Every structure is written in C-alpha cells, then in structure tokens.
Amino acid sequence: MKRILEVVIALVWLINGLYCKVLNGVPRHEAIVARVLQLQEARVLTLLIGLSEIGIAIWIISRFQSRLAAIVQMLLVASMNLLEYLLARDLLLWGSWNSVFALLFIALIYFTEFVIGKPVATNS
Questions:
Q1: Which of 40, 54, 66, 71 has a CA-to-CA distance to 12 between 20 and 30 Å?
Q2: 22 assigned to some structural domain
Q3: Is 122 a domain residue?
Q4: Residue 37's pLDDT band (boundaries 50, 70, 90)?
C-alpha cells in the first residue's frame, strides 16, 4: 500500500513538473510564477521549477531519506500554495479551493510516510 501511494505522489510531482511546466502544457503555471515573483518573463524560472519537481518525483521513487523527502514536500506544497493564494488566486484552477486540495495532498504525504510508513518495532 505504501509503495502505491508513493507512486501516486511521485506522479503528481512528475505531471506538474514535466507536463505543466517543462512542456508548458498548462501555461497558467508560468503566469502564476510571473505574478508571484513579479517577473515580466518567467519561462526560464518556470522550467527550473518544473525540473525541480521532476527531481522530487525521482527522490520519492528512490526512497532515499524518505522522511526528509516527505517533510520537504509538505513544506513546499504549503508555502507554494500560501503564496499562490495570497498573490495569484485568480489564476488558480480552483481559486480558493486550491488550498483544500493542497491540504489533502499534504495529508496524503503525511499519511504515506508517517502513518503507514512507520518503522515496525522489533522485540529484541
């Protein structure tokens, strides 16, 4: 079950990074980056953010320091969504409701790593 949820979480990062940002499949993402960072041209930075999101997907699948990966993801999702909510709410797909989906995604990451991913105690 944990592995399936890890793959689902990694796919969210991969799709948002590769399709939405690197391939510019959702131009709204670039507009959000431009608005939040007050840039005239945000393509290069959007591309770098997309590549970073692909890196997070790879990090999740690798299981290297998975607890740290989960904490980093939760902080990134919370901070990105707070900035977007405050500075670019009108550009978000679901407007204010994006925050609800962000909290659900954070909860999924937490559940996957810290609830079902808890190390099993051994009797020694």
A1: 40
A2: yes
A3: no
A4: very high
Task: Answer whether residue 30 is part of any domain.
Answer: yes
pTM, whole model, 2 decimals? 0.89
Is residue 124, in this structure, part of any structural domain at all? no
Tell me if 53 sits within 8 A of 21, measured CB to CB. Answer: yes
CA 64 from chain centre, in angstroms, equals 17
Render pLDDT for 103-117 as a digit per residue (tens, 0 to 9): 999 999 999 999 997
DSSP for 91-112 reads GSTTGGGHHHHHHHHHHHHHII
Sequence-distant (≥ 6) Cβ neighbours of residue 54 within 8 angstroms: 13, 14, 17, 18, 22
Q: Which of 25-29, 49-53, 115-119 has the weakest average pLDDT?
A: 115-119
Residue ranges making up the domain that contains 60:
2-115
The mean pLDDT value for 82-107 works out to 92
